[in-house]
Amino acid sequence: MYGKCGQMREAKEAFDSIKEPNVFSSTIFLTAYAQNGHIVAAKSFFDQMSERNIYSWTTLITSFASYKDLESALDTASHRDIVSWNTLLQGYVDWELIEEAANLFERMPAHNAVSCTSVISGFSLVGDFDRGQSVISSILQWDVVAVNAMLQFLAEFGLIQEAFGVLKKSPAHSVVTWTSIVTAYARSGYLDKARFLFEKMPERNSVTWNTLLMSYAHAGRVDVAEKILGYFPQHSTVAWNSMLKAYGDAMNLATAKDFFDKMPYRSTQSWNVILDAYAGTKNLEESFSVFTSMPQHDEFSWSILILLVSDSGNVDQAINLFNKMPYQNVLCCNALLQAYAQTGNMHPISRFLCQSNLLGIRPNQTTFASVLTGISYVGALEDARSCFGSMVWDHGIPASAMHFCCVVDVLGRAGQIKDAMDLVDSLPYNPMEVEWTALLGASKTQGDIRTGALVASRVTEFDSHNSAAYSLLSNVCSFASEIEVP
């Protein structure tokens, strides 16, 4: 009890009062140390324990992994059982250290469904389909956990038919399995198919109902979402918030406000949704009014307001809001970085990023996307290379399509079209429309008609009706009309 409340002195006194502590009581005290961040003390106490069990080992490894001391966790786990190995593997995935997770997976003496699920989710996180598919192919026991992991992985890549094939071959189905396949169809835009499967489900839970509602809401099918909400066996705050967001996304502010006022219970998330709806109208006065009416704020509340203010061009006011926050975290840092990025001034971006690191705020993929976006506005190639390298090597954050697109844009603005083209051709994944469109924009900027024509053809392979591609190509040709092409 004391340990859960962070009162370690009282917890130690309670433990010391036990005449003959056993492995159970010792593990509880070890957990108290670990959960309160006293890693060194936890390791010292662990070394003194006369008896240890699997829970003791797992607690220690989890504490190391939670604080990114994964080398110590690896040393501890190297001669333990599969639970310890799985705990460390999940630690790597949680910290988005996917290469390290893959290497550990290869070194593990044995795998089970939990191991495979962890590494598959890691590969999904960085868009590595080939290695994820390889792990799926190696799974021998298709239990519910493994099947759910496969479905979620295939759905992430839009492989709906393959996911449905896994469902049909699976010897074990659960409500989670059905929910995964319904979600897969819904996210890929097959809403009617998702609803058909939903109606065929032998059992549904609140997650399934909310998944279907949110899918129609996000697709702008507000009328259908309203009908689904009416069929709910039991309404939850999640369902109400999903419907509220649907009204907000549809820019139907009056209906959203009326729905919000009638909600039987409003969580902080509910307030954030209505705040975001007002922010979408770019009305600063009304948005501030909603913000001040909120019973409490979280990081999302502050970030919504900071982004709104920065979008209005008032970066100084956004900075003042950030400084007024009772606590600062990566979400709000990212919001402010986006504000800086829009100015194209690199000096405050670099300074603020350093200050965030000193505050102990760990940057994530979005952080570096904001920084790279700011760099791309001014075409600072060396800054882009330095930032990209720091993200990967200093912070261990894998590059995503978003980051590569920024680098392509910077190369293009710097006039290095060939290097930009080479980068797109050598991406660690199949480039999609967005990468080619970024390169097409660079071709327009530099008046490179040959590359522009080639890239435009690649863009239209993804979308033959992409008017933006044809417009950009027309601009490229117009811009380069006076250039003699040999």
From TrEMBL:
<feature type="repeat" description="PPR">
    <location>
        <begin position="22"/>
        <end position="56"/>
    </location>
</feature>
<dbReference type="Pfam" id="PF13812">
    <property type="entry name" value="PPR_3"/>
</dbReference>
<keyword id="KW-0677">Repeat</keyword>
<feature type="repeat" description="PPR">
    <location>
        <begin position="174"/>
        <end position="208"/>
    </location>
</feature>
<dbReference type="InterPro" id="IPR011990">
    <property type="entry name" value="TPR-like_helical_dom_sf"/>
</dbReference>
<dbReference type="GO" id="GO:0009451">
    <property type="term" value="P:RNA modification"/>
</dbReference>
<dbReference type="InterPro" id="IPR046960">
    <property type="entry name" value="PPR_At4g14850-like_plant"/>
</dbReference>
<dbReference type="GO" id="GO:0003723">
    <property type="term" value="F:RNA binding"/>
</dbReference>
<feature type="repeat" description="PPR">
    <location>
        <begin position="81"/>
        <end position="115"/>
    </location>
</feature>
<dbReference type="InterPro" id="IPR002885">
    <property type="entry name" value="PPR_rpt"/>
</dbReference>
<dbReference type="Pfam" id="PF01535">
    <property type="entry name" value="PPR"/>
</dbReference>
<dbReference type="GO" id="GO:0048731">
    <property type="term" value="P:system development"/>
</dbReference>
<feature type="repeat" description="PPR">
    <location>
        <begin position="298"/>
        <end position="332"/>
    </location>
</feature>
<protein>
    <recommendedName>
        <fullName>Pentacotripeptide-repeat region of PRORP domain-containing protein</fullName>
    </recommendedName>
</protein>
